[in-house]
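tool_call predict_complex ligand=pyridoxal-5'-phosphate
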Amino acid sequence: MKLEPFRLERFFAQHEFSAPYLLCASDCESMALKDLLAFAPSAQERFLSLRLGYTESSGDPALRQAAAALYEIISADHVLVHAGAEEAIFNFMHVALNARDHVIVHGPCYQSLAEVAQSIGAEVSEWRGDPACGWKLDLEVLRTLLTPRTKVVVVNFPHNPTGFLPGPEFLHALSALSEQHGFIIFSDEVYRGLELDPSNRLPAAADINDRAVSLGVMSKTFGLAGLRIGWVATRNAHIYNDMAAFKDYTTICNSAPSEFLATIALQNADKIAQRNIRIIHNNLDHLDRFFINHADLFQWCRPKAGSVAFPVLRKGTVDAFCTDLVEKAGILLLPGTLYNDGSNAFRVGFGRKNVPEILSKFDAYLKKTNFGALPRKKSWNHENRNI
Ligand SMILES: Cc1ncc(COP(=O)(O)O)c(C=O)c1O
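tool_result ok
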């Protein structure tokens, strides 16, 4: 197994805690421990008397119950808790795939969704959204990518980095295709619950398809990345049992304090998500105004869900632009090249409270520099390629 460096995470390792203004974070505003404990009566007392021994390897029953409440059909027995979404991705790929299996991954993608499969020796094809069409995915394109060896199709809605969210009919059609063809849907739903209009929330793949695997986490919608708690939800007993056994070689079980805190958060999931959606609404209004004022430099499309989007820089190159911005103004954006994307786009994140403050600094930087004088990019570069 040979894993290539995770470009985005290496970039964050370099800048996340030194750049003063993060305008590309994908998580929502976090909260202090005392504020989380205040959600439940006597939680502080219970937290202080928590025993710090090993925990149940599949996850604390109360936590699994609270996670199951986010789904329609999924019950606590279908939830397997992991150390963040990242461990769950790693473990899923290892149990679902063998060398020479074929995997199709929604692109551009959060790198581990393709990289882990590739490191196992699986063949990975990119099912790329169309940048000229709001990064929409086309099922007809998926049909052309499918082979008899296709074991898994990976999707991510709401999508990191583009914010793309299809309608429910799309997910049902994908589910029907999975039944027909026999592939497993691995549905990364870590931004689920951040729909600006709740009627746009997609059903969870694990609710509508009994072999699909839905991925959830505390980091994004709930702003609690430091807990390192994620989970898979699936009615696929084969995958569930294999993942439970595989976990004995990665983390065995989860951190007791984190499980306790994640349970309180999920028992108050609506309140926390609503707070974060209010922050996102306000930030998107500021972003709309910012991008209208700089329409000559950026192409912006307001997303319907999630905490990230992928505007395009119309002039100059995105790598040089992002480097200059962090060096001169301390503002961090993620160049799309970290996603192996050639459309001159960058990831902007708007789940945190300080976005309006950062945008006014960004505005001041643009007024001082001559980026507006750079030649305009001629066209999209959206060749279809394997990842
Ligand atoms: C689409 C997607 N999946 C999985 C993850 C991993 O989440 P975590 O860091 O909470 O494990 C991320 C994190 O950015 C993500 O954006």
